[in-house]
Amino acid sequence: MHELQAARRFLRETLLSHPEVAGLVGNRVFGDVAPRGAAFPLILVAHQRGGPAYRATGTCERVASEPRYLVRAVTAAADGLSFEAAAEIATAVDEALVGASGMLIHSGRQVTFKACRLLDPLQYHEFVDGLFYAHVG
Predict the structure, then answer these.
(1) Cis status of the peptide bond prior to 41, with omega within 30 of 0
(2) Could you tell me which of 28, 118, 120 has the C-alpha nearest to residue 74?
(3) Rg (CA), the chain
(4) What are phi and psi for residue 24, nearest 5 degrees?
(5) What is the pLDDT of residues 45-92, one digit of tens each?
(6) Pairing verdict, β 109-113 and 59-65
(7) Which residues, in sequence order, are CB contacts of 3 under 8 Å at separation 6+?
(8) What's the pLDDT at 13?
(9) Among 40, 72, 53, 74, which Cα is nearest to 3's?
């Protein structure tokens, strides 16, 4: 689990350090869900699947790790934010993350990230409690 936490932390720190992303959402980059009452727009970074893979060769040998995360720009029409605002944030997220690499220390271990890739762009809308939300990622 430490590696998955490190990946989420890397994504969050990379997004927050990108001037355009920070200009659009401030520090509102959260995990699976935003805190109740969080201001919009915001970004959610949710683990989808994947993690370390091991091969047993007498001892466990780590052979790969490719966790996948869903990074969504979320706006609320009730706050006067449009789908275009979500698309602008999604573009900034792509600029910040696609190809991003780096290293961080997590739980006393060095974790290296080779490159972020965009696998599947997404776009959808939903109504929750009578409010319209646009999700782009």
Answers:
(1) yes
(2) 28
(3) 16
(4) -90, -35
(5) 887 766 555 556 655 555 455 666 677 777 776 666 677 787 888 889
(6) unpaired
(7) 51, 52, 65, 67, 106, 111
(8) 92
(9) 53
